[in-house]
Specification:
Elements lengths: L5 E2 L9 E6 L7 H4 L9 E6 L16 H12 L7 E6 L1 H15 L7 E5 L18 H11 L4 H4 L2 H20 L11 E7 L21 E6 L5 H4 L1 H31 L2
Parallel strand pairs: 2-3, 2-4, 4-5, 5-6, 6-7
Antiparallel strand pairs: 1-3
Helix pairs in contact: 2-3
Length: about 260
Amino acid sequence: MENQWFVIPKPVHAARIRLICLPYAGGGVRTYQSWAAQLPDGVELVAVQPPGRGGFMGTPAYNDMTKLVNALFNAMSPMLDRPFILFGHSLGSRVAFEFLCQLQLRNQRLPELFIASGSNSPDTARTKLPTSLMSDEQFIAELQRINGTPAEVLANRELMSILLPLLRADFHLADTYRFTGSVKFPLEVHVLGGQDDEDVPLENLSNWGRFFKKNVHVHPVSGGHFFIETQQSEVIALVRRLLQTWQISVESKHLIQSAQKLHR
């Protein structure tokens, strides 16, 4: 079932649930690949790989959110044949949110949980100079500031000349996207935030709750904006707990249903 749009590092036969993970701006499947071996039994990790990276390196990256999400929906539909959880970091959270909007609009299966990581709520207005409009020099300086790209990559002019179109397309998505609609998903939302993230203050993370009917849970994580890389074990431990809680909940429901059938 694997195609260019996603990578399954450790296929799970008859998986009970899929964890679908979307990357941050400029990121790819590498962030999530090592997670697969650390997830509970029965969980299959699906790492989304948008055009412009990995096996999609020769394909231009999307700079239009609607086109990206429509293409993602078509590619990911076969993966929605069983329970799943959506996880996205930074830009990935907003792409995941728009994907969720499409699922509800098309009356498709919704995720069991929605996990937003390192991102302000989708209705947050941008107040800073759009990164995608900066000169190459300013753009690279901003990448250095947010500390999401290795210094040796930023210093490699030949490599950066290859990566800049992808990075600019992704940052254009991040700069121009803002959700202005009205929606309430019948889901629980968990939001992860870096305690030292200057661009995504912890006090703003509860705003994600505006779009969900069930509880919003905010989880502070040590580190800055890219805590998903620097504090990987902490993030995976949290994700494992959420998956285990879901599994216990499902098993409890099955036991209650079985007991009810016996007493009829």
